[in-house]
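Notes, p. 3: input format for complexes.
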Amino acid sequence: MPLNGLDRPVLMIGCGTMAGAILARWLETGLDPARVTVVDPGRSAPPAQGVSLLSALPAALPPRAVIMLGIKPQSLPDVAPLLSPLLANGQIIISILAGVTVAGLRAALGEKTDIVRIMPNTPVALGKGVCALYADAHTDAGLVDEAQRLLAPLGLVERIGAEAQFNLITALTGCGPAFVFRFIDALAHAATTLGLDADQAARLAMATVEGASALAVQAGEPPAILADKVASKGGMTREGLDVLDEGGRFFALLTEMMRAARDRGEELERLASAG
Ligand SMILES: NC(=O)C1=CN([C@@H]2O[C@H](COP(=O)(O)OP(=O)(O)OC[C@H]3O[C@@H](n4cnc5c(N)ncnc54)[C@H](O)[C@@H]3O)[C@@H](O)[C@H]2O)C=CC1
Ligand SMILES: O=C(O)[C@@H]1CCC=N1
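Output follows (275 residues plus NAI):
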């Protein structure tokens, strides 16, 4: 049974951390590895058994291929001139490149290209990712629906109406796992600083974040209320929350963090359109 009824060949151009996580989930949920070709000069072995690995683009591409761009935005100027002459109607380009707009991709790959821009995150490997999806009116609507079905096993897929929000959404969901990982690390580090064994602190911090996230997902109440429910009147939690909340500094810090990430996306966008 093909993945989500989709029987197209899949070509992944660049298959590192992020595209590799997507491919792992697709293979786990039924994609036949024989239909997948990875083009990646940086790999010495295919990412999974049965997947073909090429170090450069082949002379021709299958007419109905799903072509995922999994390279860094900075590699697009190297890849686009080689890829563009191989493209034909009926193929779907799915780009995961941060800070490269659909217009920027069309300028590099050809005006008639059907392009779906997505922003995944690494938890897609577990089917618990977030995948923002944007396509403009020039991309065939049927192909966009097909791409959305293909992405469904990755987790929450959300269509974005305004591409202008893509960098902000990237800061939240694409970068978000790194921010959460840093938070887990900081929790453990704080406990270690105050005297707990480092391994024990890491283990307990991880389990606490896992349990709290799972509870938050199914609680039916906003996280702010859940936090208040943990904080007994006159108890310990409130003292800790008060440190985070003083003068709104925790929210301010995270806003600054997200602004910096978003602004880098806008910078990448400017660099891509200049070059
Ligand atoms: N890492 C993450 O959590 C996320 C990354 N992204 C996006 O995913 C893209 C890739 O990022 P990562 O996977 O983190 O980087 P990565 O460095 O792990 O993967 C990039 C891959 O592209 C390959 N590559 C380099 N030049 C190439 C060429 N000329 N042709 C074919 N392949 C080539 C490299 O060998 C490498 O395997 C970026 O555009 C990034 O914005 C998006 C969301 C999350
Ligand atoms: O750091 C980056 O630029 C990419 C985009 C989102 C996550 N990683």
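The longest helix spans residues 249-274.
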